[in-house]
TrEMBL record:
It holds the Pfam family Ank_2. Residues 120-411 form the Protein kinase domain. ANK repeats lie at residues 37-69, 70-102. GO terms for molecular function: ATP binding; protein serine/threonine kinase activity. Keywords: ANK repeat, ATP-binding, Kinase, Nucleotide-binding, Transferase. InterPro entries: Ankyrin_rpt (IPR002110), Ankyrin_rpt-contain_sf (IPR036770), Kinase-like_dom_sf (IPR011009), Prot_kinase_dom (IPR000719), Ser-Thr/Tyr_kinase_cat_dom (IPR001245), Ser/Thr_Kinases-Pseudokinases (IPR051681). It comes from the Eukaryota. It comes from Manihot esculenta. This is Protein kinase domain-containing protein. Belongs to the protein kinase superfamily. TKL Ser/Thr protein kinase family.
Length: 454
């Protein structure tokens, strides 16, 4: 039984795709078919356009509205494939026209996306209506400048970047990261407001150390935010692979983060990130870092309707004033920055032995992660800078402009130290070469004199 369920799970993950039977004989095909969950077989049959198999499965009692792990039904699959006969059969058997998959897309939205006009007519005749986004405007002149036609976003061979939120897509010849807003956003005013706020922030941001906003889909559903795609991944994954970073690398990375945040904080009005953690800092092709994900960011002038919770952001990097529901400002990002800088040097997250929800209590009790790395890794005032940045009193924490000045000085000191180590070595190498040359010349001279005597 264990083997069967494992097979079903594996195939269920690909339920809108046909199994790879090209190199199997009909006996193997039949045997594998019997191993697949009947609901998943219905999805496969819809994908293949096999009307007889669909009828047989539905007549045996399989639910026509069976959903796979992506919440897709056979009608979604048939709408994507543009098979009007399969769509008509499924509708006659009671398929629901307005079911939404995990991305909030309906069969009609899929048919519109793939321009399957016969299927569109069938679905509309059965009462399917196009999804209207909450930001939809009535006049073309009101469509925002950043609006992207969803038909331009190609999700073929798309990969998930983060569970259920970001995917890679192709747009106008380049790879982009797409944040798709699910079904719950349409009916949740609070989430629609958060989406509007995020767009308002993203339009303001242009900096080499901040991920670039490219556009959005707001006039149809699902709504999407499109940003540049950075294939090297995030700082969290990088540190998992590398462990503790060399001090020079940690300081260079810290400068990238500080420059991005300084830009946000010096915006008019200032932008607070509020969710600064290694997984929200991405690496570009040149190895530099960019601050990303402004889902819970806010303009300093905007008053909070409700306090930020650990459901919104990672508790491990949150400043104590946020946890205690006190008023706060840009200095919450400085606190988070200190923890990230120390993590790069220590090679493990702050208070890694504690459960995530316990960590803010430690910060509120004025505890800070211990410095365990050798003292030399915190040279040139680096330890003191970290301690200032996570000061209990936000007013005593430095600004990012001040942090940048300090980090540049530390980085230059580390660089000079490295050069002083190299120079004597080069001198010795040169001296050794000169000695070898002298010895060689001396040897030739002796040899020449011996020859003359002979």
């Amino acid at each position: 039984m264990e083997g069967k369920s494992a097979v079903r799970f594996t195939l269920g993950k690909q339920s809108s795709l046909a199994p790879d039977w090209h190199q199997k004989d009909s006996g193997a095909e039949q045997e594998e078919l019997e191993e697949i969950d009947p609901g998943v077989r219905l999805m496969y049959s819809a994908n293949e356009g096999n009307l007889d198999a669909i009828r047989e499965l539905l007549d045996s009692g399989i639910d026509v509205n069976f959903r796979d792990i992506d919440n897709r039904t056979a009608l979604h699959v048939a709408a994507c494939q543009g098979n009007a006969d399969v769509v008509a059969l499924l509708l006659d058997k009671g398929a629901q026209v307005d079911t939404r998959d995990r991305w909030g897309s309906t069969p009609l939205a899929d048919a519109i996306y793939y321009k399957n006009h016969d299927v569109i007519k069938l679905l509309e005749k059965r009462g399917a209506k196009p999804l209207m986004a909450p930001m939809h405007v009535n006049h073309a002149r009101e469509v925002p400048e950043y609006e992207i036609n969803p038909a331009e976003l190609d999700f073929t061979n798309s990969k998930e970047i983060t569970k259920g939120t970001f995917r890679i897509a192709s747009w106008r010849g380049i790879q982009v990261a797409v944040k798709r807003l699910g079904e719950d956003v349409i009916s949740d005013e609070e989430k629609v407001k958060a989406f509007r706020d995020e767009l308002a922030l993203l339009q303001k941001i242009r900096h080499p150390n901040v991920v670039q906003f490219l556009g959005a889909v707001t006039q149809s559903s699902p709504m999407m935010i499109v940003t540049e795609y950075l294939p090297k991944g995030d700082l969290c994954a990088y540190m998992k692979g590398k462990g503790a970073l060399k001090t020079g690398t940690a300081v260079r990375f810290a400068l990238d983060i500080a420059r991005g945040l300084n830009y946000l904080h010096e915006n008019k009005p200032p932008i607070i990130h509020r969710d600064l953690e290694p997984s929200n800092i991405l690496r570009d092709d040149s190895g530099h870092l960019k601050v990303a994900d402004f889902g819970v960011s806010k303009l300093l002038t905007v008053k909070e309707d409700k306090p930020l919770s650990c459901l919104d952001t990672s508790c491990r990097y949150v400043a104590p004033e946020v946890f205690k529901n006190e008023e706060y400002d840009t200095k919450v990002d400085v606190f988070s920055f200190a923890l990230i800088l120390q993590e790069m040097i220590e090679g493990c997250p702050p208070f890694s032995a504690k459960q995530e929800d316990e960590v803010p209590k430690s910060y509120a009790a004025k505890e800070r992660p211990p410095f365990r790395a050798p003292t030399k890794h915190y040279s040139h005032g680096l330890k003191e800078l970290i301690q200032e940045c996570w000061n209990e009193n936000p007013a005593k924490r430095p600004t990012f402009r001040q942090i940048i000045t300090r980090l540049e000085s530390i980085y230059n000191s580390i660089g000079h130290k490295r050069r002083w180590k190299v120079r004597p070595l080069k001198c010795f190498q040169n001296l050794e070469a000169m000695l070898k040359k002298d010895l060689s010349l001396s040897g030739r001279s002796r040899s020449s004199r011996s020859t003359n005597r002979g």
